[in-house]
Amino acid sequence: MNSRTSPREGSRHQFHDHFSGVSANYAAFRPSYPETLFRWLASVAPARSHAWDCATGTGQAALGLARYFGHVTATDASREQIAAAALHPRIDYRIVPAEASEIQTGSVDLVTVAQALHWLDIGRFFREAERVLVPGGVLAVWAYGAVAVEGPETGEIIREFYHDEMGPYWPEERSMADSGYADIELPMPELKSPVFSMRVSWTREELLGYIRTWSAVSRFIGKNGRDPVAGLEKRLVLHWNDASRRTVAWPLTLKAGRTSNEKPSSLFC
Fold first, then answer.
1. What tens digit of pLDDT does each residue of 44-72 get?
2. Rounded distance between C-alpha atoms, residue 83 and residue 208, angstroms
3. Alpha-carbon span 269 to 263, nearest angstrom
4. How far apart are CA 32 and CA 63, in angstroms?
5. Domain limits at 231?
6. DSSP code of 190?
7. Measured between alpha carbons, how far is 176 from 119 in angstroms, rounded to an integer?
8. Is the pTM of this model over 0.85?
9. Across all residues in the chain, what is the average pLDDT?
10. Domains of the chain: total
11. Which parts of the chain are beta strand (E)?
12. What average pLDDT does range 195-209 have in this prediction?
C-alpha cells in the first residue's frame, strides 16, 4: 500500500509537537541512517513480513526498512510530518499516536523508533510495542547526539551554537537523546548490537538546513521572533565560504530487545 491515512475520530492523543512547522526542511535535510543498521535489524527480526516505524516523522527510517520488509506501517501524530513523507509502495503512513497505534495485536516482526523515543510517553509506548509484536519480535530504538563538523573553526562554531546559544531552548527531553538513552531500560532482554556511525558529506547550506529543523531553533524563534541561524551563517561563512563539502557526523546509539517466544498474554488481546 502506498498511502497516508488519518486516525479515527477521537484516537489522536495530545503530544509535544516540535516539528510540524518545519516538516518540509525536516524531509529535505534530516540525515538518513546507515544501511548497515537496517541490514542488521532485518537479520535479527524473526521474519521480514511487517515492521512498524513509530514516530516516523517524514519517513527516513521507514524508507530504510522498506528495503528489507514486505510491509512497513509508519506512524506519526503530526499530520504535517506525514504529509511531507516520501511515498513508497511498501509503506503505509498513518496519523496516530505512538501509544495507540491501532495495529493488530501480535502482527509486527520489528518495531523501531528513530530519534524520537524521548518525545513519547515511554511506558505506554513500550506496552503498545509489546502488544503488537509477534512472539520473539524485536523492538529497536536509537538516537543520535550533538553534531560534529569537520574543521577546527567550523566545528567550534557549531559546538558553541548547539550548547551555548541554543542550550536554554532545548526541550528537557532532548537530554535523553544526548545521553544515548543511558537511563532507559527496554521492557525485554536486550540484544547485543554492533556499533553504528552516522556520517554525511554536506555543503554549508545543507548543514544550515538541518540546523533549522532543531526543536531548539523553533523554540528560539517562537520566543524571540528572529532566526538564530542567520547569525550562525555569518560566522560560518568566515571559515567556509564556498560550495565545498565537509564531513558531518553524529554519535549513534542503538538499543534493541527481543520479546519472549511465548504467545502474548490475554492482557493484550
1. 999 999 999 999 999 999 999 999 999 99
2. 23
3. 11
4. 9
5. 3-263
6. B
7. 10
8. yes
9. 90
10. 1
11. 3-5, 50-54, 71-76, 91-95, 108-114, 133-144, 148-149, 197-202, 246-258
12. 95
Cα 17–Cα 20–Cα 21 angle in degrees, nearest 5: 115
Residue 206's Cβ-count burial label (10 Å; 0-12, 13-18, 19+) is middle
Q: Please determine, for residue 221, whether its predicted confidence score (pLDDT) is greater than 80.
A: yes
- At 26, the amino acid letter reads Y
- The reported pLDDT for the residue numbered 107 is 98
Query: Is 269 contained in some domain?
Result: no
3-state class of 177 per DSSP?
helix
C-alpha cell of 3?
A: 498511502
Task: Answer whether 57's CB lies under 8 Å from 76's CB.
Answer: yes
Q: Could you tell me if residue 111 is left (phi over 0), alpha (psi between -120 and 50 degrees) or otherwise beta?
A: beta
CATH number at residue 181: 3.40.50.150
Nearest to 113 by CA among 131, 126, 103, 102: 126
Secondary structure of residue 226 in the 3-state scheme: coil
Is 28 a residue whose pLDDT tops 50?
yes
> What pLDDT is stored for residue 20 in this prediction?
52
Model confidence at 29, pLDDT cuts 50, 70, 90, reads confident
Is there a domain that residue 210 lies in? yes
> Nearest 10 degrees: CA dihedral of 64, 150, 162, 241?
-110
